[in-house]
Request: fold
Amino acid sequence: MTKNYVWSLFTRLFHILLVLSVAAAFLLAEFENLLTLHVAVGYTIGLLFVYRIMWGFMDVRYSKFKDFNFNLLDLKEYMLNIFANKKEYVGHNPASSWAIVAMIILGLGSVFTGVVVYGTQEGMGILSFLNFSVFKKMDLFKDIHELFTNAFMAVIFVHISGVLLDRVLHKSKAVESMIHGYKDSEAQSLKLTLLQKIFGFLWISSSLFLFIYLLSNPSNMLVADANIAVDYKKEHPQFYNECKSCHTLYPPYLLPKQSWAKMMDNLENHFGDDASLDEQDRLSIRDYLLKNSAESSTKESAFMILKSIKAEDTIAITKTPYWEKRHETIDKTIFASKKVAAKSNCKACHNNIEQGLLNDKDIKIPELSKG
Ligand code: HEC
Ligand code: HEC
Reply:
């Protein structure tokens, strides 16, 4: 048998970039403050797939969809004979043909639903306007996104298992072929036209470019932040002056009406301090807080705090179940450190909370060593 060239350089680069970026997106999903990176990787996966679809309609031997084997009888035979001696496929075997289509659909579905979540929940990206209209569905969209990503990972798992099984049982060289591009067979070698080479170059280079561009241009529309900073000093000077003097200026959307009313009606006994004000200021601040409470906000934190509070009438943000849950993994010593000092000192970790912003990407825990 002779060696034949079956996977072009571009197909192989695409494959390795996809492996790296899907692994990265999966791991990054665990870290709130790395959300921008997760999103940039996500968009890159999307672009890689869009090019892959176009590549599938170009006349590239073994990579074009026409060369895929979608015959269900062949798939059945392939699956049944997986442990037996089976014939060698030059391009994609029936199982990998289906797996690739499933991966393209689920991968693009994951990217699209991710952009929807980014818009509804964070008020960011190209669909940020969704935050104002359908924010109440943010949980649902997140579930759908997870459904797509989990299904995507499941197909990847099956695909990798299949490749490994093939290797163990049949000493298949599929993995090597995805690296150097060659397979042992009598079939015809692949040859790219100039146009295909240019397309392939664009495929890889523009995907890499997109990734770098998204990270270096935070204001571009794909990752832009639609959350507007609030100048509380201008909007309500008394609130700004009085409520910032002892601690972080808490944005009004972090508590529901009921809690603000209860707090503002008992300022003499405010967490052990006397925070009382003259009646005119008190009423004016009370009114402002109630008008801008969690009920009137589309922010993720407002929505989640409101949902978690239920009937309780807590007046401490740090006592709400949502707050507790989101901060439970943070080491106690961090809250006790000099730089933070108290849970209620939000601005130590959320540096623009006093402008009403609580974005995941802006979360920074101060380093203890320097504290
Ligand atoms: C005299 C100082 C003082 C002033 C003025 C003051 N507070 Fe406080 N506030 C405190 C203290 C002390 C705590 C408890 C902080 C802690 O638990 O670490 C607190 C806690 C809070 C909390 C709960 C924070 C948490 O732990 O979740 C909220 C909300 C709050 N204050 C709102 C306000 C508002 C609104 C105003 C303006 C009307 C205000 N505070 C003015 C001293 C003050
Ligand atoms: C010691 C640092 C620290 C302090 C102090 C702190 N946070 Fe956080 N906060 C974090 C970290 C880290 C996360 C992300 C946790 C995760 O990955 O889920 C977070 C997450 C959150 C979230 C969820 C993010 C979102 O988009 O909804 C909210 C809301 C929040 N914090 C509000 C507050 C408020 C309000 C205070 C003050 C009462 C506060 N935090 C004090 C570190 C801190």
